[in-house]
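Hi V.,

Quick status before I head out on leave. The structure for the redesign project is tokenized and pasted below; the design run finished overnight.
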């Protein structure tokens, strides 16, 4: 799976938390989010320099990053839940993310675990190829 397929699949299943997400799908979407933030920061600073409003550069960058993050929230939540399902964990483990600082680390450690082929959350995904 390449990064384009992973992003397309995550956005296609943005409101579907059933089933499982393979490890590469989760981490490629994570890389996409990092690249998106960097691209928004670059575009915001470039735009601020072009119009000559360097004192507002931070506002441009934060606005673009905020818009980008708002568009990725549903896909991020659902791909994280599906990744937890793939490791055999309940989707409610995503609530560990509410613990300041430590919660994200717990989620990432859980996402690093191997897939569990006998997971109770696996569903037969016949039309998964058509996403």
């Amino acid at each position: 799976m390449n990064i384009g397929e992973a992003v397309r699949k995550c956005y296609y299943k943005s409101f579907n938390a059933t089933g499982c997400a393979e490890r590469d799908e989760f981490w490629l979407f994570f890389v996409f989010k990092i690249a998106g933030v960097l691209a928004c920061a670059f575009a915001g600073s470039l735009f601020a320099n072009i119009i000559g409003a360097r004192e507002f550069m931070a506002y441009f960058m934060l606005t673009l990053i905020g818009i980008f993050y708002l568009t990725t929230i549903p896909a991020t939540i659902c791909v994280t839940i599906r990744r937890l399902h793939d490791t055999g964990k309940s989707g409610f483990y995503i609530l560990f993310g509410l613990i300041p600082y430590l919660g994200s680390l717990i989620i990432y450690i859980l996402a690093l675990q191997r897939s569990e082929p006998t997971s109770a959350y696996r569903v037969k995904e016949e039309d998964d190829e058509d996403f």
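Above is the designed sequence. The two ends are 13 Å apart (CA to CA).

G. will cover questions while I'm gone.

Best,
W.
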